[in-house]
Amino acid sequence: MIEIDGVAKRFGSNTVLDGIDLRIAPGEVVSILGASGSGKSTLIRCINGLERLDAGSIAVDGQRIDEPKGLQAARRSCATVFQLFNLYPHMTALQNVTLAPIEVLNVPRRQAEEEARALLASVGLGARADAYPAQLSGEQRQRVGICRALAMKPRYLLLDEVTSALDPEMTAEVLDILAKLATGGTTMLFVTHEIEFARQISSRIVFLEQGRLLADLPTAQFFALEGGLAQPRIAQFLSKMSKS
Ligand SMILES: Nc1ncnc2c1ncn2[C@@H]1O[C@H](COP(=O)(O)OP(=O)(O)OP(=O)(O)O)[C@@H](O)[C@H]1O
Ligand SMILES: [Mg+2]
Q: What are phi and psi of 2, to 5 degrees?
C-alpha cells in the first residue's frame, strides 16, 4: 500500500501540493487527471523521494520514505516511467533493461539478460534488443522504458504521461501494453491526459487542481453526473479535453 498523508510541497512561494491524502492499494489502477501545472508530476516525484516534502508523510508498504531505509525500499518497490524517454544513450535496449537488476538487485547477468529478452519480446521488441536508443523510434524507446521499469519486478508502477510525446498510432501501441499490465494485476498510478483510456483501465480516478485533490472516486462515479461531473471544474476540464 502507498499511503500519502497530508502532503504539501512548495517551490518558493508557489504551493504545488496542498494537503494531499491518497491511498493506493495493491492491485489498484489509479489514474491522476488534472490540468497542466496542477502538480501531477510533482506528486509522482514525491513518492520516489525525488522531492523533499514540506509537510505530511508518504509510506510505502508501511515504511516512511523520509527514513533512509524506507526510501531505499520504496525505490525498489516503485518503478517509474517518465514522460521523456530517459534511456542511457550509450547502452543497448538490453543493457538499459538489465542495468538496475544487475547493479541494484544483484541478479546474475545471464539471468538478467534472459529476463530482459523475455520482457522485450513481450512488448514486440524481441528483435531489437541490441539496438541503441538512437536507432529506435520514440515509441520503441518508451516500450524499452516500460521494460526497464518492469525488470525491477516492482510492486507499484508509476507512469507519468508516458504517451504524451507519441503520435496517436504509437500511443495506441503503448496503451495496449499498459492495458495488458492493468488486467494482469500490476498496481499502477497513472498520470495521463488520455481520458478515455483512463476510464477504461482505472479502478479509481483522482483529480488534481492547483495542488489539491478535488476528487478521488471510483471510475464510474467520477464520470457520472451525480459524481465527479457534478463538480463544475471537473466537468469543464473533461469537456475541454474531449474537444482537444
Ligand atoms: N523544480 C521545480 N522548481 C520550481 N517549480 C517547479 C519545479 N517543478 C515543478 N514546479 C512547478 O510546480 C507546479 C506543478 O508542476 P508539475 O510538473 O507537478 O505539474 P503537472 O501537473 O505535472 O503538469 P503537466 O501536465 O504540464 O505535466 C508548476 O507550477 C511548476 O512550474
Ligand atoms: Mg507533468
A: -100, 125
Q: Which residue reads 502507498 in cell numbers?
A: 2
Phi, psi (5° rounding) for residue 27? Answer: 90, -10
Tens digit of each residue's pLDDT (9 = 90 or more) over 131-144: 999 999 888 898 89
Q: What whole-number distance in Å separates Cα of residue 18 and Cα of residue 35?
A: 15
The tens digit of pLDDT for each residue in 115-172 reads 999 989 988 899 999 999 999 988 889 889 989 988 988 889 999 988 877 778 778 8
Give all domains of the chain, ordered by start, each with its CATH number: 2-86+154-243 (3.40.50.300)
Burial per residue of 193-210, b for 16 or more beta-carbon CB atoms within 10 angstroms, e otherwise: bbbebbbebbebbbbbbe
13 lines ligand 1 (CB under 6 A): no
Q: Give the mutation target among 11, 20, 162 for probing the ligand 1 site: most ligand atoms within 8 A of CB.
A: 11
